[in-house]
Amino acid sequence: GELLLVERTDPRAAAMVLNFERKVSVAAGRFVASESFAKSNTKVKFGYIDERLLKLFGGIKGDVPAGELAVHTLLLSRHDPEIMVALGPQSRRFVKLGQFYQLIEAQGQGQEGPLLVNGRANVAYILDENGAAWAVYAFWRPRCGYWHVSVNPVASLGEWRAGFQVLSQVA
């Protein structure tokens, strides 16, 4: 994994990066990454699945804890470290891959719901099997009619654009 140093900023400034939109419940259940993130999965129309997803998370299987996720809109274009600080304490920053998958599955054919289906990214910070943080993102490609799922290191130089959504734990 990578060591990521994040500068602490004034929380009032950090809060201006994200706008809380809503809470979304996720149910407890069994999750197997290699079966869920597969083009053969009939519950979700996947058009593209980054090969790194299964390399990093493919061994994840087990029970997904029930809980609540927070959905935030990114108000300003920002890099991952800035967004992660704006999300608050580490306990809120990371979601489980199985929780993110549940939201994708609920909108598996591009129907409306808590995730954006307008071509903009839905970003979740997820720890891999070794505890390294990654930005996993999914977006529905309206013209193509499928989900595109990819992975970026949180130290990536790219910025997420204003209007994208970011997921976190509620508490």
Quick structural gist:
The protein is α+β, with helices and mostly antiparallel strands and 171 residues long. Helices cover 22% and strands 33% of the residues. It has helices at residues 11-15, 33-36, 51-57, 80-87, 90-93, 97-106; strands spanning 18-26, 29-32, 46-49, 61-64, 67-74, 122-127, 133-141, 146-153, 165-169.
Q: What does it look like?
A:
The protein is of the alpha+beta class. The protein is 22% helix and 33% strand. It is built from six helices and nine strands, in the order αββαβαββαααββββ. It has helices at 11-15, 33-36, 51-57, 80-87, 90-93, 97-106, and strands spanning 18-26, 29-32, 46-49, 61-64, 67-74, 122-127, 133-141, 146-153, 165-169. It has a seven-stranded mixed beta sheet with strand order 1-5-9-6-7-8-3. Strands 2-4 form a two-stranded antiparallel ribbon. Strand 7 (133-141) and strand 8 form a beta hairpin. The two termini are 25 Å apart.
What is the C-alpha radius of gyration, as a whole number of Å?
15 Å
The number of helical runs is: 6
The run of helices and strands is: HEEHEHEEHHHEEEE
- Which outline best applies? globular
Q: What percentage of amino acids are in beta strands?
A: 25-35%
